[in-house]
Amino acid sequence: MTNRTIQVDVLARVEGEGALTLVLDGDTVVEAKLKLFEPPRLFEAMMRGRDCTEAPDITARICGICPVAYEMSACHAVEDALGVRVDGALRELRRLLYCGEWIESHVLHMVMLHAPDFLGFPDAMALAKHHPERVRGSLRIKQAGNAIVAVLGGREIHPVNIKVGGFYRVPSRAELAQLLPALRGALDEAQDMLDWLATFEIPSFARDYELVALRHPSEYPMNEGRLVSTKGLDIDVHEFRAHIEEYQVAHSTALQARMIGRGSYQSGPLARFVHNADRLSPIAAASAARVGLDPTCRNPYRMLHVRGVEVIYALDEAIRIISSYAPPAAASVPLVMRAGTGQAVTCAPRGILYHRYVVDDAGLVSDAQIAPPTAQNQLGIEEDLFAMGPTLAAMSLEAATRRAEHAIRNYDPCISCSTHFLTLRFEQRGTP
Amino acid sequence: MTAVIVGIGQLAGGDDGVGLAVARALAARGLETRESADASIVLTLLAAARRVVLVDAVVGGGAPGSVVRLTAEALGSGPQPLSSHGLGVAEALELASTLYGAATAERIEIVGVAIARPAGSTFGLSPAVAAAVEPAAALAASLAGPR
After folding, report:
1. What is the C-alpha to C-alpha distance for residues A161 and A90, in angstroms, rounded to an integer?
2. pLDDT at A17
3. Residue among B86, B98, B120 whose CB faces A14 most closely
């Protein structure tokens, strides 16, 4: 019996802050440590003493890939503190903005980062050589999402047009209508893409996850809803901290999260779909049925297909919102500063994103908490790796390393974007 | 046709934000610019047959603040543009060549600004790198000019 260590050192933008160490003793995983690059902790400190209306712009800089999620959670949490409600066309525009981010983030992950794992290619470059038209098509779909964010946000990353209470400027009907041809084309291409993804061989794996998602009375969730789980959780988001705790682990700069008294949970696309399949539009629901997805699914590898369905939903929803859009009378709701505590959960592409701000009479933030989806999913990812012990033990070290990375990428973790650009180091240890 | 200038970087990454700072300086002068955290944006522009001048931070390109002109062929050796999320510059250019033809390499220019290393969760540029924004912007603007 030998001990084997799988070591994956990620070349991230800030080097050395995202890595995986997996140690196998025979067919048992004895150590699974995922180290994540996790800036939100420092942003919490940065927010203290700042005006609460700065929260969307400052926290959006945490990530260039999903800034909309940070802006939406920050806006809703501050509005909650100030007792402001954003409704009507402004609320629809926020939903449209989220559609744009889901489309661009999901497509980038599915095709450029995750598809190579399923097809046995080392990276997107190899995939593009074998399937150039698939990759070109995915980039056209992604561009349709980028265009939504650019029109509503003022630019494609770190959007500058979003504020607490609404927008600085709202688009005209004509500005939004010009997005429609590309969105309709992308919807057709997304259906083709899903059929292609459905041909991939899906590894057999399932666990009895606690799947946590927002659930809204009538919508597929994006910006609001109750927090529900497959283990009986059904709470208002204001009760988040009574049920979910964050705690420090030695091997990661990120805090991990767990359900108090129960342990790990998962909050990504699979959880969203399992709890909200009945809230999909008819077109998206038919797509899910076509590829055999139903709410009993517990295989995290199938999140590839759920993302494909969510892209179809987001395109369909974007077309619906634009088609019925009438510009609001004002671009934002007026704000009156008051002391209070505000909380919000919104649906980032990779899971739930929780923000909480304590605001004083002058509107200054005295305390902030940001629980990003990847930190919430981290414990469960490590548990997946523990559960994969026998599978990994039966593989060569190289194949096992690939499979472990593949499993981590099921969750599209924030670092995953860089994990196709990593340096692998293999350590083979004899019996101690 | 004048090229579009693309700044790549991470605002919260200290000197890693220099590409964005250059793009903003040129946008203020009326040039067509884009900003991105990753290089996949270049694929869209090259697919649309645009010329692109890409500005990014590089590690290993000399003393911090040095402005270097890189060629697509040189990527993979020597000073490397940084990447965290999505696609790095070298990967994006290779992909563009695969998807839209080898001639895409003729439509891209790369301006690198040497930095010591990216800083996690830091806003703002160090003095040496901040001093390089203007010369990098001047080089990018001259490369973007009509051919």
Report:
1. 13
2. 45
3. B120
CB of B37 less than 8 A from some CB of A? yes
Containing domain of residue A165, as a range? Answer: 9-23+33-208+261-429
Confirm if A429 and A3 have CB atoms less than 8 A apart: yes
Which has the higher per-residue pLDDT, A200 or B56? A200
How many Cβ atoms sit within 10 Å of the Cβ of residue A332?
18
Contacts of A324 (CB under 8 A, 6+ apart): A92
Question: Residue A250: inside a domain, yes or no?
Answer: no
The residues in B 57-86 lying below 8 A from A, measured between CB atoms, are 82-86
Looking at residue B29, the DSSP 8-state letter turns out to be: T
Rounded to an integer, what distance in angstroms lies between the CA atom of residue A415 and that of residue A402? 16
In single-letter form, the type of residue at position A348 comes to A
Band of the pLDDT at A432, cuts 50, 70, 90? very low
Tell me the pTM. Answer: 0.89
| Per-residue model confidence as pLDDT tens digits over B100-136 | 998 898 899 999 898 887 666 667 899 999 999 999 9
Exposed, middle or buried: residue A303 (CB in 10 Å: 0-12, 13-18, 19+)?
Answer: buried
> Is B34 within 8 Å of chain A by CB?
yes
Size of interface A-B (CB pairs under 8 A): 95
Number of domains in chain A: 1
Question: Where are the strands (E) in A115-204, listed by range?
Answer: 162-163, 166-167
Q: Inform me whether the C-beta atom of residue B101 falls under 8 Å from chain A C-beta atoms.
A: no
Rounded to whole angstroms, the Cα distance separating A358 from A182 reads 42
| Residue A243 placed within a domain | no
User: Could you tell me the two tokens for A1?
Assistant: 């019996």
Instruction: Identify the closest residue of chain B to A13 by CA–CA distance.
Output: B84
A15 in a structural domain: yes
Q: What are the b/e assignments for B26-46, b being 16+ CB within 10 Å?
A: bbeeebebbbbbbbbbbbbbb
Which residues on chain A are in Cβ contact (under 8 Å) with B118?
Answer: 13-14
Any domain includes A151: yes
Nearest to A125 among B13, B83, B98 (CB): B98
Q: How far is B116 from chain A (nearest CA, A)?
A: 12
Helix or strand (DSSP H, E) at A6: strand A3-10
Which CATH number covers residue A91? Answer: 1.10.645.10
A255-265: b (≥16 Cβ within 10 Å) or e: bbbbbeeeebb
Q: Do B120 and A129 touch (CB under 8 A)?
A: no
